[in-house]
Amino acid sequence: QTNSGILYPKVSSTRELLSLDGLWRFSLVQYNDSNWTAYSLIKASKTDNDVDVELMPVPASYNDISTNPKVRDHVGNVTYERNFIVPGTWEGKRVWLRFGSVCYSAVVYVNGEPVLSHEIGHLPFGGEISSFLNFDEENNITVFVNNILTNTTVPQGDLAELVSGRVKQEYPFDFFNYAGIDRPVFLYTTPSTYIDDITLNTTIDGTTGIVNFQVAVEGNSSYTSRITIIDQEGRGVATNEKTLNGKIAIPDVNLWWPYLMHDNPGYQYKFRVELLDDSSKVIDKYDQLFGVRELSWDNTTFKINGKNIYIRGFGRHEDSDIRGKGLDLPLVIRDYNLIKWIGANCYRTSHYPYAEEIMDLADSEGIMIIDEVPAVDTNYFSDGLLENHKTSLTELVRRDKNRPSVIMWSAANEPSTAQPSASDYYKDVITHAKSLDQTRPVTVVNNVEAEDDYSGEFLDILSMNRYDAWYDHGGDFDIVLPKIVAGAQAWHERHNKPVLVTEYGADTLEGYHSLPAFIWSEEYQNEYMSAYFQAFDKLRKEGWFIGEMIWNFADFKTSQTYMRVGGNKKGLFTRQRQPKASAHFMRKRYWTLANLL
Ligand code: GCB
After folding, report:
1. What's the CA gap between 131 and 115, in Å, rounded?
2. pLDDT tens-digit readout, 60-100
3. CA 388 → CA 47, 109, 151, 153, distances in Å?
4. Angle at which helices 581-596 and 329-342 cross, to 10°
5. Strand pairing of 368-372 and 406-413?
6. Which CATH superfamily is domain 296-596 in?
7. Contacts of 570 (CB under 8 A, 6+ apart)
8. pLDDT in tens, 173-210
9. What spacing in Å lies between the alpha carbon of 402 and ligand 1's midpoint?
10. What is the ipTM of this complex?
11. pTM of full prediction above 0.95
12. Alpha carbon of 174 to ligand 1 centroid (Å)
């Protein structure tokens, strides 16, 4: 249902909200129950949780909650189930069910009837379920969650049958393939005529902010509308009572600025929409936050509100002990405290869209986001994959289009862009991204050399991942400066576009010291970073180099391989969010850069 809106559920004078977060009954479904959407068949099939408590918290990934490797390594379907009561006062309203994300796909039943299905993790979905509900009584919700990745899923994966007969999920990316209902679940109401979607774009004219708006309404089209823009002090600063599509001017506007580029970063207004009936009674009301800012880019620069952006940041993961990728608010706030402490102004949502609650903080704290779809390590291009890939972009843009923090779309991470077939494929993907949004640049994060690539001509900004002196040339820090500088120059010279380093990093075991520096020690990570800093300082003088992002913000869990000791350890912070020596070192650089620019 990608042609309708996916506004975040909020209480207003016309809308109510109930959370379905909490403990759900959980069971594994045997892999060979192939007809997995057959509700009765799966209900009847035997479950296999052994010693575990058959309850699962929502939101959370299910994999690391259990003591049982069968849960952690499960392939195929699981079921989540719970009962809930819908207040009788909700009868006659539209009642909606909304999931922030289910990894990887879901089929949802309410009182035994299929009501929703969705494929692609990390993206919200929902729909109206009014006609399936019992009001003032118990209702049952059962969600079948499937984690299988194939050649046409985003991201791709493969099923392998081991000699033992067990089926195993294999995937080309290194982060653990967590699954489950990993973001909040809401029930909410709207009136029968309701605000379905709001799209806002802003430009600046001197000291005036211009808000271009489009409001989509479903239901009775004879209602009129009132739009009010409200500032952070709660004052109405502009109104429009005529139309659902138009422009509003905000005089003496407060712009949205990134952290450490302005003394009041992350300034947001409310865009209030009210639908009114003939007697001016408010039928529906929704407040959408937004910021006023203007992005522009050319062959050498990327600007916000007319000022050059220099990105100081990292790639990250949604990842922590026990919860996996499950939304956890203490962790979210801890992470933003660390981001501000270290002086970063940006991160990439590597390698999938992050929770809306996480994105809200980027908007309010002024942290810029490179917003990435789940297309990581794409190896085989096909029409089926292309369709899903485009859908992931459609759903991401629909969700995040109003966020001032989102400054760029990333259409993929490290795809095989050295194959000639990548040319048609990425032309299609990028054309699609540009048809959805012309106000933000689009990138693909590449790890091939400029001369081997077939994607760069379609992109606005060139992003490169480099691991010189890590995956090859261990300890040879002297090769970093010449190789990074030459690599970036080759990208710029081939396409005449701004260049950004989106990854470089070295695995580091906290507390392991070695003088002189030896691979995996804290000293090694610092010397490795120093070598890259020298290259970046040289590139900054070229005039087209727009930023540096280290891999990774924090250590994270991976699949089991000898390459990873307890996971990927390239974090500046441990998985528990404590600093390594590198975090202190990076803090000096990022604050120095922030003060220079
Ligand atoms: C990469 C990938 C990232 C990995 C990283 C690494 O190039 O984009 O997902 O985690 O390298 O540490 O190998």
Report:
1. 10
2. 999 999 998 999 999 999 999 999 999 999 999 999 999 99
3. 31, 24, 11, 7
4. 60
5. parallel
6. Glycosidases (3.20.20.80)
7. 505, 506, 507, 508, 550, 551, 552, 555
8. 999 999 999 999 999 999 999 999 999 999 999 999 99
9. 29
10. 0.99
11. yes
12. 7
User: Which CATH class, in words, describes the domain spanning 194-292?
Assistant: mainly beta
Q: What per-residue confidence (pLDDT) applies to 36? A: 44
445 φ/ψ angles, rounded to the nearest 5 degrees: -90, 115
CATH number of the 22-183 domain: 2.60.120.260
Q: Which phi-psi region, left, alpha or beta, contains residue 252 (left: φ > 0; alpha: ψ -120 to 50)?
A: left
Name residue, tokens 């913000």: 553
Residues 6 or more apart whose CB falls under 8 angstroms from that of 233 comprise none
In the sheet with 236-240, reading across from the earlier edge strand, the strands are 236-240, 224-230, 269-276, 282-290
576: left (phi over 0), alpha (psi -120 to 50) or beta: alpha
Q: Which residues of 207-237 are buried (b: 16+ CB within 10 A; e: fewer)?
A: eebbbebebbbbbeeebebbbbbbbeeeeeb
Q: What angle do CA 230, 235, 238 make, to 5 degrees?
A: 55
Q: What is the 3-state secondary structure (H, E, C) of 236-266?
A: EEEEECCCCEEEEEECCCCCCCCCCCCCCCC
Per-domain boundaries in the chain: 22-183, 194-292, 296-596
CA distance 345 to 589: 13
CB-based contacts of 338, cutoff 8 Å, min separation 6: 553, 573, 577, 583
β-strand pairing of 307-308 with 125-128: unpaired
Q: For residue 1, what pLDDT is reported?
A: 58
Q: Looking at the predicted structure, is the pLDDT value of residue 513 above 70?
A: yes
> Does the C-beta of 564 come closer than 6 Å to ligand 1?
no
Q: In sequence order, what are the residues at sequence separation of 6 or more whose Cβ sits closer than 8 angstroms to the Cβ of residue 426?
A: 411, 412, 415, 417, 444, 454, 455, 458
Q: Which of 350, 410, 414, 416 to mutate to test the pocket of ligand 1 (most atoms within 8 A of CB)?
A: 414
Q: Which of 119, 372, 414, 548 is catalytic?
A: 414
Which tokens is 56 given?
A: 């699962």
Residue 503 is among the residues annotated as catalytic for this protein: no
H or E stretch at 444: strand 442-446
Collapsing DSSP to helix, strand or coil, 11 comes out as coil
Please give the structure tokens belonging to residue 203. Answer: 């430009």
Task: Read off the pLDDT of each residue in 505-523 and give the average, rounded to a whole number.
Answer: 98
Token pair listed for 313 = 């940041």
Measured CA to CA, the distance from residue 336 to residue 369 in angstroms comes to: 13
Ligand 1 center to 129 CA (angstroms): 41
On the question of a common fold for 22-183 and 296-596, the answer reads no
Q: What is the mean pLDDT of residues 478-504?
A: 98
pLDDT of the residue at 80: 95
